[in-house]
Amino acid sequence: MLGLMQDQPLLISGLIDFAERHHADVEIVSRRVEGDIHRYTYKDAAGRSRQVANALDAMGLQFSDRVATLAWNGYRHFELYYGVSGSGRVLHTINPRLHPDQIAWIANHAEDQVLCFDMSFLPLVQAVHARCSTIRQYVALCDADKLPADTGIPGLVSYEAWIGQQPSSYHWPSFDENSASSMCYTSGTTGNPKAALYSHRSTTLHAYAAALPDVMSLSARDAVLPVVPMFHVNAWGIPYSASLTGAKLVFPGPALDGKSIYELIEAEKVTYAAGVPTVWQMLLGHMKPAGLKFSTLKRTVIGGSACPPAMIAAFNDDYGVEVLHAWGMTEMSPLGTLCTLKNKHQSLPDAEKMKIRLKQGRSIFGVDMKIVDAEGVELPWDGKTYGDLHVRGPWVVREYFKGEGGSPLVNGWFPTGDVATIDADGFMQITDRSKDVIKSGGEWISSIDVENIAVAHPAVAMAACIGVAHPKWDERPIVAVVKKPGAEVTREELLKFYEGKTAKWQIPDDVVFVDAIPIGATGKMLKTKLRELLKDYKLPA
């Protein structure tokens, strides 16, 4: 016997319709590429999203055709999120920080039909367009009068000219909720990038789950600043969850320096922000010397890579901002866990609470996880046993676009490539990437733990730990360190800083001072590149 409920598919168009109907006057504020501030409402955004849909119809694009973007976080990109997916096409957000050869390969592999780009990426598009064989329309996200006369890109039009003649009325089509809605390529795999292909159902369910009180806790009382890029796993789903809840949206555009982010937070009374640690490092670096404080910011989600304890402490103790540690990946849409305390933890001493907050958190409803050994046997949740982390759920991939790499699943579970522990309360802690874990004398050393201690030193701006070959112990850790401007610390001083903070055998054997640590397209440290740079390094005798 089936239930007698209405059969209404979960479609992304329903999110923007809801925002327009129930939160029509709520603002969406954007710092544009030109540097000025643009503001309008959900009602305005909904109307212009429908103009995008009409423009795609006028081009004769078919159902599930791909529309690509090379764009910062802003109102036009937001309109494409809804106009493209809502009309039945697939939004393909491309990471502009990738190498041009990768971008051209990705656009061809996705068979993109349209490419919409911010003007700051014009040189990039000029460099790759001749190699993008499937793209038949290029759209510059700017006003008509901001489009240069001769760009060398055939048929290039401005976004405002492209949608300007289209009506703002449009009947969103109804179709199977399992239809593809958007795609995002991940470079976290071996070989060529592979695409996670999200559905309307998976995206809508993820938007619901992300907004829950024990997750991002978004509401119509929030002003949300997604610093995490909209080209990085759909800004962690925030553009969808914000529409679902009616939260004010504040988009930072290309200005991600500490000063610009701080000024936007204060000017727009931001209550909630989300981004990777490197961005918040710049923000705190701007605020501390100037003696600045937050007047409205209450919570920030930090993910993408492990958040150093010193950063959590600085936000909490110095600025009264709660840090919500998060974990996920492109293949998970992306959220898998978020670290919010349970009721029984509220009375714990601050030091004990900090130990919990350093973990990546508890599973969100919809994500199941387990840790397994090398033979695939499930391991206990005791907070101590390390294992390979596997996940499954309605917004976790079952395979990559075009079947690249074959099925990634192991007995129906997706292997994340992370090594983790899970405690009795379900709090998961990433101890390393499986490819980065250091095995010394048969014991595992967490490179993340080594890095966190180094970054806690007042003279250290950034640290990356890698393993190097050792004749007796197989591998030993060393830590590459970038010093803060004007700060000094010696090798001996930093190694002494580790004493009493970790087991003696886990202290790195050496400190290598470098000018910079390679950073990838998503803001994560590139340890493969670091190993390459240090390939001639020899441990001290």
Q: Could you say what the CATH architecture of the largest domain is?
A: 3-Layer(aba) Sandwich
Q: Which strand-content bin applies to the residues?
A: 15-25%
Q: Which descriptor suits the 3D outline? A: globular
Query: Could you name the ranges where pLDDT drops below 50 across 5 or more consecutive residues?
Result: none
Q: What is the helical fraction, as a range of percent?
A: 25-40%
What CATH first level of the largest domain would be assigned? Alpha Beta
Number of helices: 16
The total domain count is 2
Sheet of most strands: 9 strands, mixed
The CATH superfamily of the largest domain is known as: ANL, N-terminal domain
Count every beta strand, where a strand is a DSSP E run of 2 or more residues.
Answer: 25
Sheet with the most strands: spatial strand order: 2-1-11-10-12-13-14-15-16
Radius of gyration: 24 Å
Given the helix and strand composition, which structural class is it?
alpha/beta
End-to-end CA span: 74 Å
